[in-house]
Design a protein that fits this description.
Largest sheet: 8 strands, mixed
Structural class: alpha+beta
CATH topology of the largest domain: Nucleotidyltransferase, domain 5
Number of domains: 2
Shape: globular
CATH class of the largest domain: Alpha Beta
Number of helices: 15
Mean pLDDT: 95
Number of strands: 29
Distance between the termini: 67 Å
CATH architecture of the largest domain: 2-Layer Sandwich
Radius of gyration: 22 Å
Amino acid sequence: MSTERFVLAIDLGTSGPKVGLVSTSGIVAEWSFEKVPLILAPGGGVEQDPDDWWQAITTATRTIVQRGSVAIDDIIGVGVTAQWSGTVPVAGTRHLSNALIWMDSRGAPEMIDLNGGPVSVSGYSVSKLFRWIRRTGGAPGHSGKDPIAHILYLKHHQPEVYDGATVFLEPKDYLNLRLTGVAAASHDSITLHWVTDNRNLERVAYDPGLIRLSGIDPAKLPPLRPPGEVLAPLSTEAANDLGLPAGIPVVMGTPDTHSAAIGSGAVSDFQGHLYLGTSSWISCHVPFKKTDLFHGIGALPSAIPGRYLAANEQESAGACLTYLVENLGLRGDNDAGSVYQGLDRAAERIPAGNSGVIFTPWLNGERSPVDDHHLRAGFFNQSLDTTADDLIRSVFEGVAFNARWLLGYVDKFAGRSMPELRAVGGGANSAVWCQIHADVLDRRILQVKEPILTGLRGVTFLAAVELGYLDFDDIPARVEIAGIHEPDPERRQVYDRLYQEYLKLHKANRKIYARLNRVE
């Protein structure tokens, strides 16, 4: 008789949810994915329908449960991780409107008013900035993509939604509400509202002065709970939708940045991981609270008790490959097993930097290491000799150049250079892309096995610790490495030259982007 116990793990990404039955030792017994559409709105709006999320989750859950490889009685918990920096307006136990997700920048004008003041630096009032950084570890971004910007956008432009909402929830916390009927936010998920005092991680709480500064009604903010705590039992209504028995403990869970850190196995301080999904980031746990406001890096509450996570985000990584396929019709090798394998083969045919074409991956602006929602993507230095394969290779390289741009500031933030990074997310399935990152970053890249399932494993490990099946120190041994990619000195020399031109392209064109994309 099996002694394994399993967590129903839910990982809501931008493309849709992955749902898995994952053992407390990190083995994914079953998983399924359901796609969810984006809804684009004028002025930088990017939304999703929470009913689409729930329908996709219930479909995926029933699919994996009905396969029968895991006994229902062996499911000991439910854990959710999800895209971070989104806003769901809720009345009671249901949403009032679509969710404004992390890509939505319509709140940027509200940030000008909120962040500014008579004595300002880089668009921030000095007095406000001091209060935010001292208490929270960061400050609202200018891009309008933080939840505080979403909420203020609704307050000023959709007052019927703002007034009707009883609470505003992050996507992860909204799903927990659907699972249990209980509305709450975790200490990590609430951070990007910039209204909590994070100086003492044992007592993270709302700061009344920051709430007044934000202009948000405090009654519309959810109660706070620790990330690993059990929120409530699975409700009868949700259990019926999912095809599970009611009463299974639902753990608070954590945002995707935090679950990726845990699921990568990089749980010790200064162990880094590189996430390559729709977006990208480079992160590590740190033992201190610190802020690099000018490059979008902050030490924010981690899902691991008593620890901070160096949080940042680059807007577009895998999204650039999707754009190649869906908008430009570039598919690489049509005989490959999948579209992305076809792109891999095309990129592999072209030597490092061979064409001299440079791609800037700012399809949706940028957050780190610059906070500028006006930036846009582009191919530079094309000629009549430039081939489709050249363009594909340049996209792989351009995303890696952007990661190198960020890595320098992450190293400075941590106070040391991380010798290796664990690569996770769907993009880390590509050995070609992992090697390009190794060469561009001049770091050893550890390609985690089944990297697309890292979020499922991460939230499972978090739940397993809370439910008494695991300790955090046990996690690294439960994460398998599929490949190790060492940097090649010759390719690095090529990339050093192109990277310097990459930085110059940003400097030369940022004002043009601002003029072209400013909303009047």
